[in-house]
Amino acid sequence: MDFPSSLRPTLFVTGPLGLSNVPDMSFMCSWRDALTLPESLPENSKNEAPPLATGLLWEPETPGPLPLLPPGPDPWDPGVTAQDLLFRGAFPFRRKPQAVLDVTEQLSRFLWDHGDIAFAPLGKLMLENFKLEGARSRSKKKTVVSVKSLLQDLGGHQPWGCPWAFLSYRQRRFSIVGGPVLGKSVASLLGELLHEELAMRWEQLLLDDAFTGGALAWVPGGTPQVGQLVYPAGGALDTLCFQEVSLPPGGDPQALGDPGHIQLRGPVRQVVTRTVQGESLLAVRSDYHCALWKVSKQGRAAPLQVLQVGKGATGISLSPHLPGELAVCSRSGAVCLWTPQDGLQQVYKDPETLVFCDPSPWRWADFTAHPRVLTVGDRTGVKIIDTQGPPGCGLLLFRGGAEAACRQGERVLLSQYLGECGAEPRLPTLQLICTQFSLYLVDERLPLVPMLKWDHDLPSAPLWAQLLPPPCPGYPQPLLLGGQGGHLQLLHLAGEGASAPRLAGPPQSLPSSSDSLSAFPLLEPKSQWRLQERLKAPTIGLAATIPSSASKPVLSLFQLSAAGDVFHQHLHLQADPGPHSRAPAASWTPQATACCSRWLKALLDVPPTPPVWAAPTFSHRRLLGCMEQRKVEQKGPEGLRAAMAAGRLLRQKDLGSLPSAGPPPAPEPGPEDELSARLEAAWEGRMAAWWERQQGRSSGPGRQPKRRKRRTQLSSTFSSLSGRLDLSDATSPPHSPDRASPEARPRPPVTPPSQELTQELWARGVPSERQQTLRDYMARLPLQEDTPRGVCSPLSGTSSSRATPSRPQTLQDGTAELPPGRNTRRGAAVSSSQTSRQQVLRKKPRMGF
Amino acid sequence: MSDFSEELIRSKTEDDQEESCVFSGTGMSFPWLQKYIGTVATGGKKEKDFAQTTNACLSFIQEALLKHRWQKAAEFMHSYFQILEDSDSHKRQAAPEIIWKLGSEILFYHPKSNVETFNTFADRMKNIGVMNYLKISLQHALYLLHHGMLEDANRNLSHAETWRYGEKSSSQEVLINLIQAYKGLLQYYTWSKKKMELSTLDEDDYAYNTASQNMLNHSWKTSVNLCALIQTPGVWDPFVKSYVEMLEFYGDQDGAREVLTNYAYDEKFPSNPNAHIYLYNFLKREKAPREKLISVLKILYQIVPSHKLMLEFHRLLRKSEKEDHHKLGLEVLFGVLDFAGCTKNITAWKYLGKYLRQTLVGNHLAWVQEEWNSRKNWWPSFHFSSFWAKSDWKEDKALACEKALVAGILLGKGCRYFRFISKQDDQVLRKKIKRIKKSVKKHSIVNPGL
């Protein structure tokens, strides 16, 4: 094999992470990597560097990926989020924010929600040890409370937790007396456990390394257009599915028939597939088991062997050289070679980490260009070990330290052998190493000195990578990098034989599934939120293929989300665009939106997850009795009483009909209302013009903003390039999703109804075919807290005068009209009491004692 | 509230560069933690509007870059310069580097950008803050080099070379060395151009003298420039190569040897295969004795047993008189064929077949068995499976024949690979296959008695 005849100059410094007194020679931009030294030497002139491919770009065909398969029948819940775990109060803003786990909040919530579990055992314990039956005395009987029933009560219904629940005086007194004792013991017992659990959950939230390597695999079929996707499905991700997919040239991939299933006994964490010497193998890693299947030419999987890993498996990889050979690593720090014929052979074991001490038990192993040599990695570095050599020896291939100019806190997240790509590997000795900041390419023959370093800056942990064969001969190889948050980056790797690997052109990012939101129809907020949440589900697998027969190179990319959805996107290589001719940005095709609508319909048919906990219910019959006594004539309270008696939701018709009213009046702009003028201009898209007008009016010669010289100097460099600086364009980019505030993404115009109606602006902004939808949707809105709030505290000054009870507003199609007067508000408040109560509950935790 | 923060979170010491990274209890930093915290914080002192807009702007630029929208990125960049007026001094100080990084990237790829724009930008960036002068100068020079503007690059490097700020720190020193080395490399380019011119001139010509004088001057300057850096541990292939070439040209063989030996054997340097290759090529040019060449390649063999020079190494060993060299020759061949990238190297297979026969004829069955023992459990499926037999025969019949010979010798005539090839009926190769069958029968180590 050739070794690059001349390597890029690199400083070699040894030392710990983040050593700062050395110049960081790797503060590189992709262009720096593209630089070549002029090959003026006569001997080198023949292997001229290929021209820089600035135009190399894989253009997505749609603005976002599309769902490939209908959503599974199991509901999905995003689980614990940062909001659930972190302290929510005011934190002093610092340069380096700190995460503070909210143990108190969690503990009090637990005592609220599961008081029976927390206190019942205590009650039982105390009952056993309490001797309360003292001498019976008449005089005492009145003043001393029998504790027995109270202690029994501890495990019974939940008097605590709900401020509206009926508390007897006895219980109240008991809680005051026993509170300090009970609360303390429960808190101290539970607190420690909770603390531990929270810390674990938080670590997991920051980095969930279980899915490292990815749980989605593509098994090529007999023809280039057909293949199988292998992925886990089901709520617990414990069903392994084999879905045949066809990739028609020029069309979207299609699922052929129903997937085949294999039910497993644990969640699938990693699916690896590889075709070695014509034999397709499939390896699956679960938490404590690994299994191997052989996939026949017809696509049928036959089980070969299952392996139990007592301490838990962290990684599995299939040999690209020998059919049926695997490397398995476990949390105990052991790495084994596994073949179905010969069983397990432990080749390495070290519970300690390689370079410095790191608590993570994560281990990883992969193959190298030599079939008997493995790489073994942990968070601190990667080592190459000879499985035939004496145990314990090896050579560090990558060190988390100054050698690779690592930053402080940098850790290895993924290590992958890149040599197995295709029959004729172009980069047979390269290893990819990913950290949370950068990507390194290391040649096995030159340990410790990365051949290439690129700061990927992904906003989530890069746990998946795939090197694809070059789309056309002579082109660079696409290297896909996937982050847990669905972020995808594509790099173009060039260099083989005598030239060192390098980036051919700037890397690009690919759309993630949350970019597809715009393809879905408009929804009511709750469903919209559900859809958004589903699209934002973390990615757990990535697979890509370039069907070789296509005349125009096409990259098919599949992504598996934690919710079990498979999304696909299609990219075509923009061969060599001229500097100015850029293809128009991809847009949604009718087929794509139709596909999304179908998928959405199926998604909304899936019942949502039952809540983990519901507010304690208590009897309202007693309250009903109170109401009965009062003499009531009006229809409203009567309806309310009836609804309460039946235990159903209070609806409009229960409250009687309302006097109909005309449409809401339009706001009257004040004579010199700058804000409304500006808003109006913004709505009509003439913001820039307004701004200019405003500028012309207000800025005299003396009011020119002072700017520093350097800034204007620098600006002039760029202004010559940007040509025009359209203010409206610059402040509200139409394409770029707002990273800084994800909530401000282009959402369908779902603003509070009161605001829309008073201002009548929605009618202008919404296309006519959607106005009816919007109207229908608003008509169906139950009387939620929005409505009364809108009435009580209108949003703008102009509308406040109109929205007084004397001239009530009406929603357009009037099924949920508001009656005038105070009763209405009371009625509305009752109907939404369930939600508001829950909110109060959350805001003011209070222990039962 | 629990006092979890102290335990779980280790606050980082005041290091201004990475403010967005927060550390967990394990010491690992998470660039995405800031985002999580941002979703939770409800009260307290929030980021100022200024910081919010500049951060948003930064992410827009990054996104535009990753979408290759250079025009858009340039527009955002225009707004991003406001960060130079940030009231937060940490941010203000870190800003020039970010601006340089992003700005140069935009200007490198922007369709309307040209060298002049880039130069203007670089010159201005150099003088914003003192910390980046050397780095930016170096990158600027590399940019000019890439565009073939050697003179401008040279001027740039000369400026940077003399630049000093405050006390000379070690990082400054390394950078200055690097800058000087690049300057040396530039001088080398001029020198080698002159050398080319010289080779066309007549030796008696008057011009020849001036030209050679010129060259001498250059060489002297270059050696001064390159020397310092080459002493520093690192990978300096282009510098070493050009330096040695100049030294050799002026007959300073000892100097060149010293440089190369130091580059190859200094323990502070990374084990760079090229260092050994350069040394070997130099010794070969020098017509060094075989022993010497073998000793250099022996080390290369230990670092990169798959290198293409290994076949040359094998030839050297084969020609040697020493017995242990002959043994090593066999080991080297087996070693080359262990690697996935070398399985189709027909020369290696040819050598192995020939050398196996030779070794067995020379009654060194033990050597072969020693090599084979560690490989017999995986070579059959790695090299000699029926899949490879079919595909090799289809793709490269000559290779299949060579491999069949080796398979036959090592595994006996019952092996699948050998059986498949020997059953093939090919007009051209019939004779060859017959010969292979014969030598397998004679030499196979599986049934040595027969």
TrEMBL record, chain A:
GO terms for cellular component: fibrillar center. Residues 529-722 form the TAF1C helical bundle domain. The gene is TAF1C. Residues 795-813, 830-839 have a biased composition (Polar residues). Pfam families: TAF1C_beta-prop, TAF1C_C, TAF1C_HB. Residues 736-746 have a biased composition (Basic and acidic residues). It comes from the Eukaryota. PANTHER family: TATA BOX-BINDING PROTEIN ASSOCIATED FACTOR RNA POLYMERASE I SUBUNIT C (PTHR15319), TATA BOX-BINDING PROTEIN-ASSOCIATED FACTOR RNA POLYMERASE I SUBUNIT C (PTHR15319:SF1). Residues 283-419 form the TAF1C beta-propeller domain. GO terms for molecular function: RNA polymerase I core promoter sequence-specific DNA binding. Residues 840-849 have a biased composition (Basic residues). Residues 748-810 form the TAF1C C-terminal domain. This is TATA box-binding protein-associated factor RNA polymerase I subunit C isoform X1. Residues 654-675, 692-849 are annotated as: Disordered. The lineage of its organism: Eukaryota, Metazoa, Chordata, Craniata, Vertebrata.
UniProtKB/TrEMBL annotation, chain B:
GO terms for biological process: transcription by RNA polymerase I. Keywords: DNA-binding, Nucleus, Transcription, Transcription regulation. It comes from the Eukaryota. InterPro entries: RNA_pol_I_TAF1A/TAFI48_chr, SL1/TIF-IB_Component, TAF1A. One of its GO terms (cellular component) is RNA polymerase I transcription regulator complex. GO terms for molecular function: DNA binding. The keyword DNA-binding applies. It is found in: Nucleus, Nucleolus. Pfam families: TAF1_subA (PF14929). PANTHER family: TATA BOX-BINDING PROTEIN ASSOCIATED FACTOR RNA POLYMERASE I SUBUNIT A, TATA BOX-BINDING PROTEIN-ASSOCIATED FACTOR RNA POLYMERASE I SUBUNIT A. This is TATA box-binding protein-associated factor RNA polymerase I subunit A. It comes from Leptonychotes weddellii.
